[in-house]
Every structure is written in C-alpha cells, then in structure tokens.
Write a structure and sequence with these properties.
The protein is mainly β. The chain has one helix and eleven strands; from the N terminus they run E-E-E-E-E-E-E-E-E-E-E-H. The protein has one domain.
Length: 206
C-alpha cells in the first residue's frame, strides 16, 4: 500500500459509516478530523455484535453503581465496518478491542474503552485509545429522557506525534416529523372521462 505524503490530511472516522470525501478539515487542529465516536456502542448492535468476540469478565463498579464488565475484540474472519482511518483517498480499517461497563439493573452502557488490536505501520499509526461515556439526557419539552453519549476522548500516536482530543456532547435537540398523505385521481384520467361523456352521452363509462 502506498503511503500518503506527510502533508496530506487525515480523517478519523470511528463509526459504521465512512466520513464523506467532501468533509472540510478547515478549523480542525492539525488538519485532523475526529468524528463518529458516538457510534462506538454499535459494537453491541444486533447487526454488528457477531463481528466481535465477547466475554463477560464479571462484576465491576462505575461511580458507585454496579456494572457488568464485557470485553470485546474484533474477529479476524469477519469484515470490519466499525472503525477506519481515512488518509487522503485511502480507507484503512482498524480492528478494535476493548471493554464496556454495563449497568446490572437496566443493562445500559455507561462507559466504553477501546483500542487498536495491533499497530498499523503502513500509515504510521502506532497506537490509539478512545473512551466514551454515556448517560441519561432529559428533554423537558417532550417529557422524556434518552440514553446518549456525554463525552468522548481519543489518544493516538500518528507519524511520530502524539495527539489528544476531547469531545463534549450537549445541547441535544429532539424533533419529529409528521406527514400527511392525500390522494386524488390524476388530471389526465379525469379529463379523459369528461371527454368520453361528451362524445357518447348515452354510453355508460367503463
């Protein structure tokens, strides 16, 4: 695999979908965009979990709350749609392993830590570690609460430089879209019936 030139931009997309090629890196520190961390919990999604080996490590504790500790690791015999680095126009899938803290009473994810299974010398990526924390987010106007990411952190060693990023998620907005469908005969069909009735006034329409 050919290596990109050192002045090429890097787009990190740890999510199920690859960031669009038209993503602007303007405003990102060091021209490195880190996105998609909110989807790390998709490791446990029914369409994704078979791509990982999972082992329950027993009971743990998270801020005084009882949790199950579940270890996961990307399987070698399954395609990787979870995490990737985009360097220039090249997409490089990154295999993950990590641990999740899941509450014992309601089975809700409160924290996930993940890191690379192995270094990727082809893009000079030696290490990466990410942490995402989750919790209830209230929506007063809707009188409801949803379990969503609250923060995400990433550390990575790339091209002989070490980087740290922190994302805080707030000001969530909940909205809904209503649709209404109305049906009526096409204009051409209605006109055809009128013309037929005028030509044959005594002949019933079919």
């Amino acid at each position: 695999m050919s290596l990109p030139s050192p002045n090429r931009s890097l787009d990190i997309s740890p999510s199920m979908s690859i960031a669009p090629t038209k993503l602007s890196l303007t405003g990102y520190p060091d021209n490195i965009a880190s996105t998609g961390f909110v989807t790390l919990a998709f490791v446990f999604h029914p369409h994704m979990r078979d791509s990982f080996e999972m082992v329950c490590e027993g009971l743990g504790d998270w801020h005084g709350q009882s949790t199950w500790l579940v270890h996961f690791r990307q399987r070698d015999d399954r395609p990787n749609h979870m995490h990737s680095y985009k360097v220039g126009n090249q997409i490089h899938a990154v295999r993950l392993k990590g641990r999740a803290w899941i509450t014992t009473d309601k089975f809700q994810i409160v924290r996930i830590e993940a890191e690379m299974v192995s270094p990727m010398p082809e893009i000079e990526l030696l290490s990466e570690h990410q942490v995402v924390e989750y919790g209830p987010i209230p929506f007063q106007k809707r009188n409801t609460s949803l379990w969503l990411p609250k923060s995400a952190e990433i550390y990575f060693d790339f091209r002989k430089h070490r980087y740290y990023r922190r994302h805080s998620f707030d000001h969530y907005m909940l909205y809904s879209v209503d649709s209404d469908e109305k049906r009526k005969d096409p204009v051409s069909k209605a006109l055809g019936k009128q013309q037929l009735s005028r030509t044959h006034p005594n002949q019933p329409l079919k």
